[in-house]
Amino acid sequence: MGSWRGSSESLDEQRTPRRFEPLVGCFCCQWCSYAAADMAGALRVSYPANVRIVLVPCTGRIDVGHLLAALEAGVDGVLVSGCLPGQCHYVDGNRKAAKRVERARAILKEIGVSPERIAMVHNAASMGPQLARCFSEMTQRIRTLGPIFPPRESTGVPGRRHRDRNGCSPVR
User: Fold this and answer.
1) pTM for this entry
2) Tally of domains within the chain
């Protein structure tokens, strides 16, 4: 998976407690949610700049592993945005995605991470302002929770390897 961050700052520089701005990854269905995000842009509806949209053919193609891998790669929260219930272009993709989101949330709870870091919303192509509001609400929720991984200085684990902003481990 590529880098979720577009900034030249290192992951640790962005995560100092006084400057924490969460990074939210959003998997958007190409038929509805991506079109809604496009509409929000066309209408000049603002939403947080730290939301990274990933276009997927259908949210039904998203697996639990994708959601957890995004968090492992440094995203602080993951939002899945699919078609409205009953309006999936692939019949039941959004229903499958909702079940997988719940499974991922259960895994997070088991390992002691807040399940609020993963959420699913449903939007039609004409719901750009509502999707922008969902982005803002998710960003605020994650800001309240704080960073998923503490800054490097506070890990206290000698020899622990950290990944750079591109997800690569440093060479020793």
Assistant:
1) 0.79
2) 1
